[in-house]
Fold these 4 entries.
Entry 1:
Amino acid sequence: MRHPLARVLILLLLGIGSCLAGCGREEPAPPPPGGPKGASAFRLAVAAHEVEHSIPLEFFRNGIGKPDPRDVIPALFDPQFAAARDVRYLPDEARVIVLEIERDARAYPLAFLDRHELVNDLVGGVPVLISWCPLCGSSVVYEREVEGQLLTFGVSGYLYRSDVLMYDHQTESFWSQLHQGAVAGPQTGTPLTVIPSRVTSLDAFRRERPAGKVLRGGTGMLPPAAYGRSPYAGYADSPRIWFPVGTLRDDLPPKAEVIGLAQGGDSCAFPLDVLARAPEGVTRHVVGGKRFTLLHDAVGRSVSVRDDEGTPVAATRLFWFAWQAFHPRTRVFAPR
C-alpha cells in the first residue's frame, strides 16, 4: 500500500512545483473568431467595435425594424425572362432598368424591384448584380466577380444615408450601392465595378430591342398580387426623406431626378428636366477634365451617357438628395 501512496504524493508535489513555476504567468487568451478583419458586418448593429468599417454610424440605420432584417426583402436568383414582344403582365409605360452585354439585352421592371431591390444574373456571359434602391430612386448595375471571387448578394435590411446596403453571402460584408464598394466587414474598402445601364419604359425597350428579354420570375419571387401596388406609392412626389442623410443642399428639390456623373474627383448632377429641354436631346459637358455627351430620349424618358469615342459610360440616375449626400461637393449643371 505504501508504494501507491508514494506515487500519489510524488504526483501532487510535481503539480505544486509546476504551478509555482508557471501559474504566475497568464497564458494569452486566443483571439476572438474572425477578429475585426473577419467579423460579419451584421455585427455592426450590436458590436461595432468588432467590425471593420469605413462609414460614420450616425447614418447607419435598420430599415426594416426587425432585430435581424436580412433577406426580409428577398433578392432574386436564377431569374426567368419573357420575350419583350410577348410581355402582357406589365403596362407599356412600366419603368425598367435596361442592361445590354454582348447583344444580350434585358429589362428589369421597377415594379418587381420595389419588392426585391437586387437581381443576381448572368448577362452576355458576365455575372452581374442589378440593384435598385426605392428610397434613393437609384439604379446601378455591377459585376459580381470581385477580385477573382464570384459573389452572390442579398438585401441586408440596413441602410447608409438612406441607401440600400447589400451583403454578399461569401463574406457577409456590407456594400453600399451609391458608395459603390464595401463599407463594413471583411471586404471593407473593396470597390465594385459599375456597368453602364439606364432606366426607360417597357414600350421604348421593345422598340429598341425587339429581341430583348424582360424579367418575369425567379427564385425569391412573391405571389403576383404582391406587385399590384408599390410599397413606396407617393414617395417620389413627397419632399419627405425617411432616413437621415446629413446636410441637404437646396440647389434642387430633394426628389428631383438627376443623372449623377463622377470622374477624377469631380462630380456633376444633371437635372432630368434640363436634359429634356436640350436641343435634340443632346447635352455636352466636361466632368473631371473629360467631355461627355448625354442623350435624352423623350419616348422612354431615358438618358444614356457616352465619352468622346462614343463608348457608353456608367452614370447614376437618382434623386438629388441622394446624389448630394454621397457627393457633397458636386456641381449642378445649368445650360449657358
Entry 2:
Amino acid sequence: MPNLPLAKPDITQREIDAVVEVLQSDTLSLGPRVPEFEARCAAVAGRRHAVAVSSGTAGLHCVMVASGVGPGHEVITTPFSFVASANSALFVGATPVFVDIDPKTLNVDVSRIEAAITPRTKAIVAVECFGHPGGMVELEQLAQRHELALIEDACEGFGGHVTTPAGDRAIGSFGRAGVFAFYPNKQITTGEGGMIVTDDDRLAADCRSLRNQGRDGMAWLAHQRLGYNYRLDEMSAALGVVQCDRLPELLESRRRVANLYVDRLMTNRYLILPTVTDDQHASWFVFVVRLNDLFEPGDRDEVMRLLRADGVGCNNYFPPIHLQPYMVEKFGFKPGDFPVCEYVSSRTLALPFFTTMTARQVGEACDALEGAIETVLLARKGRF
C-alpha cells in the first residue's frame, strides 16, 4: 500500500543553514532578511514594492484597508477559493459579492462581472485558482474601465505568468496590488507567511505601517493609525530567500509532476484534467482532477474515502465559500445560487502533489484513483 501525503515541502540543507544562521544571531525580528526576501519577491512579480506579512490572509486584509474598502462597500470575488478571499472583505465591514466561475479555468467568469457591479462596488478580488492565471488580463482591463481597485489574490500562483502581445506578465503584477502566500504546500514556503506586491508607493507605505501596529517611522511606542501585528520574522524570511533562489528548480519539478499526471490520466474517460492554454503558464499549486458528468456529487466523496483507505492523500478543493455555515447564516446563501461553482466543487479532488514525487509514486496514485473510480461505478450498477 502506498503512503502518499497530499503535499510536503521541499527543504534542503541550504534552507536549514539559513535558518540556523539567524537563530545564532542576535536578531530574530526586524532584521536584514525580511527586506532581502521582499526584494526577491518583488523581482518575481515584476513590482516595485514588496511588503512581507505573517500570512496571505494578513496581506489581503492590509490591502483592503489601504485601498479604502470599508462598511457600505461591495467587493466582487469568486465563491470557488479558500475562504480568505471573501473574508478579507468581511474583515473591513464590506460585503462580498460572488460571481460564478469559468468551468475551464475555475477562476471567476469575467463575462459575468459587469452585471454584478453596483454604485457600492469598490474592489474586485481576483483569484488565480490552483495557480492558473486565466482571465487576469481581461479582469485588469475591466477594473480599469470601471475605476475599481483590482486586488490580486495570487496566494496560489507564485512564479506563474501569462504571455501577452506586450510580453510576459507575472502572476502578482495585475491591478493595484497582489498578495502571495507561503504555507508549506505552496510553490515556495516560509512555514507561514505572505507578501504584498505593488507599484503604488502610498499603498506600500500604508501596508508597511499596518503590518507593524500602525507605526509610521516614529518612535516604537508611537502609532500613526490602527494597525496589526502582521510582521514576518527573520527565520521565515531567511527560509524564503533560499526558496526564492531555488524557484526555477521548484517550479520545474512541479511542472514535471503535473506532466506525469497528465500523461497518465489524459486518456481516462471519467476524468476532466486541468485546462491550460499556450499563453497561460500555471505555477501548479496543487493537481486537481474532476469527475465527469456520469458521477453524482456523493461519488467524489466515496472516491476520496477509497483513496485514503489505500494510503493516498487527497482533498476536496474547494467547498463553495457561499455555502460555508457562517456565510449562509450572515447572507442567506443557498444551494443553487452559483451552480457552476457548486457543480465543479462537488466533483473535484486534489491528488498527492509535491516536487519530489517520482514517476512510480504518480503511477501509484493514478492506479488507486482509477481503482476507486471503478469501484464506485460497480457499486452504482449494483444499486440499479
Entry 3:
Amino acid sequence: MILIAESGSTKCDWVLLDGSGNELNRWKTIGFNPYFHTAEEIVSHLSNTKEVETYRSQVRAVYFYGAGCNTSKLKMIIKNALDQVFIHSQNEIGHDLEAAAFSVYEGAPLIACIIGTGSNSCFFDGEKISENTPALAFILGDEGSASYIGKRLVTDFLYGKMPQDIACDFKDNYPFTKDEVIDRVYHQCHPNVYLASFGIFAGKHSKTPYIRNIVKEGFDTFIENHVACYSNANQVKVSFVGSVAQAYQGIMEECLRIRGFKLGEIVAQPIDSLVTYHIKQLQVS
C-alpha cells in the first residue's frame, strides 16, 4: 500500500492506494508543520488516528508533502515521526511547494503559489523547483494568507479601527479580552492556526469594502514579494493552491492584471492532483 499526504499548518489530507493505484481510503488529520510540531507530538497524534492504526503495518511507502518542510533539518522532524509510525515503509518528505507545483502544472513553466493558512511561491519548469524569495512564516511573512487576514482583523478590532457594524458582529462571535488574545498568540501553541481561524469571519463579510480592502492589500503585498521577484513573471501564468486564493479569486485576478501578470489555475486542495501524479509514477515504474 502507498500513502500520500498533503499537509498545511491547519489540516492534512491522507489518501491510501493499493499497489496498482486504486484508492482504498482517505481521511484528514490536523496539519503537521515542523516549525510548530515535534516528532513526538506527530507520533502521538498519528498513533491515535483510527485509519493509521488500521493500515500502518501494510503501508510500504509514504509520500508526505508539508508546510515548513523546506530544509533537511525540518524534513527530518517529519521523517523521524513517520519512521516510528510506519515501520515497514519507505518514507519520503517533500515541501508543500512541490505539491502545489505538481497540482497546477499543465505542461508549461509557471509560478506556483500557496495562499492558505500561510503563503509562499516558487518557479516550476516542469522538472525543477526554484525559489526567489524565502517564506518568513506568519510573524514576518505569509502575506495575503488566512493568518495575515486574521491578524488584521484582531488588531483592527483591538485598536478600534474595525467598522462598527462588523465590530459588533465580531465581538458577538469572539468575546475575548485583549489579554486572552495576547496569551493565545504569544504563549500558546500554533498561533498561526489560531489567527487563520478568523478567516471564517472574513468570509462571512467578504463582500464588504472593509474585508475586500484587507484582502487586496494582502494580495498586493504577496504579489510584490513573491511574484514580481521572478524576472519572467509577466511571461508565464501565476497559479495558486489554497482556500484563500480560491475564495477571493476575483480580487487576485484584478491584482495580478494591474501588475501585468496572468492568472492560471486555482486549486483549493491539491491532494487529488497529487494522487494522480503518483498513480502515473506507479504506471511508469
Entry 4:
Amino acid sequence: MVRASVLAAAVAAVGLVAACGDNLSGFEPWYLEPLTADEGVWVRTPEFEVAAGAELQDCYFFEVPPQAADTLWVDRFALALNPGSHHLNLFRVGTVVGLDPAAGEPVELGGVAGTVIRGGPCWNSANWATWPLVANSQQSSVESPVYEWRLPDDVATRFTAGERLMLQVHYVNASTQETPFRGRAGVNLHRSRDDTIEMGTLFATQQNIRICRSTPPPTFSGTCSMPDGNHWVAAVNGHFHSRGRRFSVYAWDGQSTTRPPDADRFYVSDDWAEPEMANGLELLLPRGGGIWWTCEYRWREPELGCAEVDARDPLQANDCCYTFGPIVETSEHCNVFLYYYPRTEDIACF
C-alpha cells in the first residue's frame, strides 16, 4: 500500500475523482494501479457509507471493453476491499431472472462505466444461480485489504469483448462484523501474454442447513461432480457465517456416500470472517469424481434476540434456527468457491 499523500498524487495524475473520506483516518487506503487497455481492465466502486446496524449488498454491472483480438485472457487478479466487507464476488451475467443490469442506476466504475442495483434483488441468490463464478475474495482486513492472485503457469481466465460481468459487494456493520470506515471495492484484471489453458470455476452451496438452539452442534455436507476428464484444482475457499466453526473440502470419488478420509482433505478453515484462499494447489481430482465439502456449526445466541431468526425459519419451529440465507446477522451459508483447469464448463451445484 502507499501513503495517503502518494495516493492523492496518483489519483490526480490519472484524472480520477475520489473521496477517501473516513478512509484517511485510521488506516492507509489501499491503492491499485489503473490499467491501460493493453494491460487489462480495472474497476473501482464509489465509496459508500455503512451505517451502524446496517448490512448492505450491492451489485455493479459492467461490460468487458472492446479488445483488439475480441478476447481478453487474464492470468492475474487483484481484488481489494475496505475493512468490514463480508465478500466480493465476480460473476458472468447469464440469463436475467429478477436482477436486470438495465434496471440499475448509471455509475462510473473507474476504468469502465456501468450500472448498480443496491439491495433489493441483489439479495436473492436465485437471481444469479446460473451465472458462472469468475473470482472471489473475503479478505478485507486493515493489514491486508488487497488479495492478489496469479494463476498457475499457462493458465488464464477468458473473457470476450462486450461480455457483461457483475461485481457483488457485501458489507456488514452490526454485531457479528464491523465496518470501521467507508465501504469500497476494486478489481484489476491483468492481461495474460502467454498461450493459455482456460481456467474453469465451481460454485457449490448446501442450502439444507439448520442450526437450532435445542440441537447439538450440527454438521452439513454436500457433493459436487466434475465433468469427465482430468481436472486440477488451482485454488479454493469456503464461506459461512458466524455460527460456522470449521469448513472442509475433500477430493471425492463420485460414488462414496460417507465423508472421505482426512487424507483426502485439501482445504480447511476455522475462520469464518476472513477465510483464506488456498491457492497453488495443483491437485488432480479423481476422474469421474469431484468434491465433498463439510460445514460444522455451533449455535450462537443472537445479540438482538431470536425474533428475526425465527421469522426467517421456513418451518416456524420457534427454536431460534438459523437457516440458509444471505443476511450475516440472522442466516447461514455453506458455500464453496473452487477454481480448476482445464475448463470443461463452469459448474454450479445446489
